[in-house]
Specification:
With 355 residues, the protein is mostly helical. The chain contains 16 helices and no strands. It is globular.
Length: 355
């Protein structure tokens, strides 16, 4: 039996009943795949008869190997980054597809997949327009870390965190959907609460779209300003705002990282959705969202360390505005800041010399 026989909704979130009994399938899975391929057996039947939590986790380990090999061959460590916006939705689609193939109630899983596809579309588009899929593109933070540690230590970091831990994390973000799958055998139809959770998710995705677009508009205007030494017409920003170097308007006036805040909340809400569906206060499925929050703390610290070194006003911004929890009042810029030579000033001086 590929699914546990649980008696209550609470049992759907019990690790000892719904995950632990199937760990043996994980050890057997590689050999079963090889046997099915070599003997021309049915991979579809193997897929249907394997616990979906096990097959999903096994796939994340397989991808970890691929990420490691690709990163070391290309000396580019953003392999996981390129798949970040896709894998959680692929795993949610996996749970929905497995449920459909086994003729189980799937309406609630389809609802999870709906907002998950919207999440992937937004994040993938934003990553693409920033050049993330260009050949040779790499997150600048990996280069900084690579320059701070010995090569051997960075290789260990790549084997553990970059390639495998991140790959497993992207699967664990979707793990609450497994609990919703199990709970759907008790409550098959989409409930008002399910619609409420989905509405919250779509609202958070919409807020991410707004924050991404505000950041994109600002960075576009800043690049044009630095190139032409002139504030772009109709950009919506003043010279003072562009000279500052970072955005402090819109959602960014109340939160230093509104997109990060929404991102963490989205996966925590999915976890809470699984707790509601299984009538539990907490469960093992919270491991993914908790670890994601921990990663964002480290990522935010490094990002802000770099920003503080580049922009004199950033420290004041940090004191007034929360990183992930929005402040009640917007950021108030100081009346005067120390004179900083901007790229636009250098361009103006160069033009003056040429005249």
């Amino acid at each position: 039996m590929a699914l546990p026989s649980v008696r209550t909704l609470e049992d759907c979130a019990d690790y000892s009943q719904v995950v632990e009994p199937y760990l043996s399938q994980l050890y057997e899975l590689p050999w079963n795949v090889i046997d099915a391929v070599s003997s021309r057996g049915s991979l579809l039947e193997l897929y249907k008869n394997t616990n979906p939590m096990v097959s999903g986790f096994g796939f994340s380990l397989f991808l970890g190997v691929i990420f490691l090999i690709a990163s070391e061959i290309n000396r580019n460590y953003s392999q996981v980054d390129r798949m970040w916006s896709l894998l959680p939705t692929i795993y949610n689609a996996h749970f929905a597809a497995w449920s459909h193939l086994n003729h189980l109630p799937s309406q609630r899983l389809d609802l999870v997949l709906l907002w998950s596809v919207a999440w992937s579309a937004r994040l993938t588009f934003n990553y693409w327009r920033k050049g993330g899929y260009n050949i040779g593109s790499e997150d600048y933070r990996w280069e900084i870390i690579r320059g701070k540690v010995p090569p051997v230590l960075f290789f260990v970091f790549n084997v553990t965190f970059i390639s495998f831990i991140q790959s497993i994390l992207l699967f664990l973000l979707a793990a609450p959907t497994y609990i919703i799958l199990l709970a759907s055998n008790f409550e098959q139809d989409v409930t008002a609460a399910d619609l409420g959770f989905a509405a919250v998710q779509l609202s958070l995705i919409l807020s991410e779209w707004f924050s991404d677009q505000q950041q994109w508009d600002y960075q576009t205007a800043k690049r044009q300003y630095q190139m032409r030494a002139k504030v772009p017409r109709g950009c919506g920003f003043t010279q003072t705002e562009l000279d500052r170097g970072f955005i402090t308007s819109g959602l960014w006036a109340y939160c230093r990282h509104p997109n990060f805040a929404a991102e963490q909340t989205i996966w925590f809400v999915l976890y809470q959705w699984s707790c509601f569906a299984s009538k539990t206060l907490y469960s093992w499925a919270g491991l993914g969202p908790v670890f994601l929050i921990m990663i964002f703390q480290g990522s935010t610290w490094l990002t802000e360390l770099i920003s503080s070194g580049k922009y004199p006003e950033y420290e004041l911004y940090r004191k007034q505005v929360g990183a992930h929890i929005p402040s009640l009042t917007p950021y108030r810029a100081p009346l005067a800041m120390p004179k900083v030579i901007r790229t636009s000033d250098l361009a103006n001086r160069q033009k003056a010399k040429q005249k």
